[in-house]
Amino acid sequence: MNRAILLAWAFGLGLVTWRGIRQSHKPVPPGQYLAASGVFVLLSLLAAYEPAERVAALLAWGFDLAVLFQVLPGQVAGPAAPPRQQETRTHMPAA
Questions:
Q1: Which of 19, 24, 48, 90 is at 20 to 30 A from 31, Cα to Cα?
Q2: Which of 11-25, 31-45, 77-91 has the lowest mean pLDDT?
Q3: Where on the phi/psi map is residue 73: left (φ > 0), alpha (ψ -120 to 50), or beta?
């Protein structure tokens, strides 16, 4: 396995763990680790083709940036931040 992809994988799993524990205060479900690891396994297979090795490494770090900026779907990137609820005020007309 390419060293850059291995480092990106470890960093990505760390991001998923950190976000999951920070938001839900529980351990991250194994399915999220499996989904995230699957992406990096496919990228390591792409890196086995020597001309695509650099592209695969850049994509691996790109996925880490996407996790960091919360761009990926929840199963791959971990739980998304809960939406903020806006207060709605109703104005009662004066009688």
A1: 48
A2: 77-91
A3: beta
From residue 26, give the alpha-carbon distance in Å to each of 57, 69, 72, 84, 93.
31, 21, 21, 21, 47
**pLDDT (0 to 100) of residue 57:** 93
Angle at the Cα of 68 (from 63 to 3), degrees rounded to 5? Answer: 45
Q: pTM for this structure?
A: 0.70
DSSP secondary structure, the chain, as one string: --HHHHHHHHHHHHHHHHHHHHHHSSPPPHHHHHHHHHHHHHHHHHHTSGGGHHHHHHHHHHHHHHHHTT-S-HHHH-PPPPPPPPP---PPPP-
